[in-house]
Request: fold
Amino acid sequence: MPVTLLDLIVISVMLLSGLLAMVRGFLREVFSIVSWLAAAGVTLFFYPQLLPITKQYVSQDTVALAVTVGILFLGTLLIVSIISARISDAVLDSRIGALDRTLGFAFGLARGLLVMVVAFLFFNWLVPDKSQPPWVLDAKSRPVLQNTGDWLMSLLPDDPENTILKRLKRSPATDEGDAPATPPATTPPGPRTERGGTTITVATAAGAVAGETGYRRGERQGFEQLLESARGTGQ
Reply:
C-alpha cells in the first residue's frame, strides 16, 4: 500500500512540531501546558468569589461572568508563563540543555500526533466514510489516528458541553447557604388548676393580636362556667 497524502500530512505536522519543541526545550513545553492547566484551575476555583465583586460594576450577568473568567484566566496564564520562561531558559543554558532539547523533540512528535488525531476526528464528523477521498481511506496512518481518537473519546464524559456549562453557571460559593430552620413557636402552658382531682390547664394564647390583653367577654364567661363545674364536681 503506497503512502498517501494523509500520511505525508501526518509526518510533516509531527516533524514540524518536534523541531519547534526541540528549539524551545522539553521543560518549556511542559511548562506551557502547566500554565494553561493552572490558569484553568485558578479560574474554576476562584471565579465564584470574584463574580459578586464584578457584578457591582457590570450589570449584565453574562458580561460579568465573561469579564471575571477572562481576567482570572489571562492573568494567571501570563504570570505562570513568565515564571516558566525564566526557568526553562536557565535549563537550556545549563549542562542538561542537550537532554532537554532531545526530550523536547520527542514531546513535539507526540504533540503533532495529537493534533492530527483531533483534526481527524473532526474530519470524520464532518465527512461520512462513503464521501471520504481514497487518500484518506487508504492511508497507512488512518488506523493509528482512528484508534487513538477512539481512546481519547472514551476519556471524555458523556455530555462534556453541558457538564462545563453547569459548572460555570452554578451558584457562587459566597452564598451563605441554607439557613437553619427556625423551630415553630410553641405556646407555653398556662396555669394549672386542680379541683377535686380534676386538672384544668389554662392555655396562654401566643402571638395574640396587638391590643388584646385578655379573653373576650364570651370566652371569659365560658371559662368561668368551666371552673364552676369543676368546683361542683370536686364537692
About this structure: The beta strands are 192-195, 198-201. The helical segments are 5-24, 26-55, 61-92, 97-126, 134-137, 142-155, 160-168, 217-234.
